[in-house]
Amino acid sequence: MSVAKRIEELRALLDKGLAEGIGVGHSLGVMCAELGEGRTVYTLKPGLGQANAMLTVHGGVLSTLMDTAMGSAIFTELPDATAYTTLELKVNFIRPVALDDGELRCEATTVHVGRRTATAEARIHNAESKLVAHGSCTCLVQSF
């Protein structure tokens, strides 16, 4: 399958999830802004639904944003009839995100996509372009 077809397939899955109220786009507000070969951009508008006990955006929500973006970047480079699952996720939190902050932007890029494993990196920036968090992942690549 070509990269363009793989991106088209991913876009259709994301749109279906939003339309049917399924997935992190619906539940947390993680939205896809850009899809390209080995690169994705996802956004998140902070709000009460993502709060931790300190009334800032929960670290797990930021981790989910990065995991989604990195997994999608990997997906764009996988051949047809191939899936992935996250084996390892590493996140470095740089600064807190207030619940009334502007939109967050997470850009992810692939580092390596092989037959058995794939790796990617991501960075989240706030509305003022300040780094909020960065991380990496390793995914298991599976043919079915």
Automatic annotation (TrEMBL):
UniProt-recorded name of the protein: PaaI family thioesterase
Domain (Thioesterase): residue spans on this chain: 56-132
Provenance organism: Amycolatopsis acididurans
InterPro entries tied to this protein: HotDog_dom_sf, PAAI_dom, Thioestr_dom
UniProtKB keywords: Hydrolase
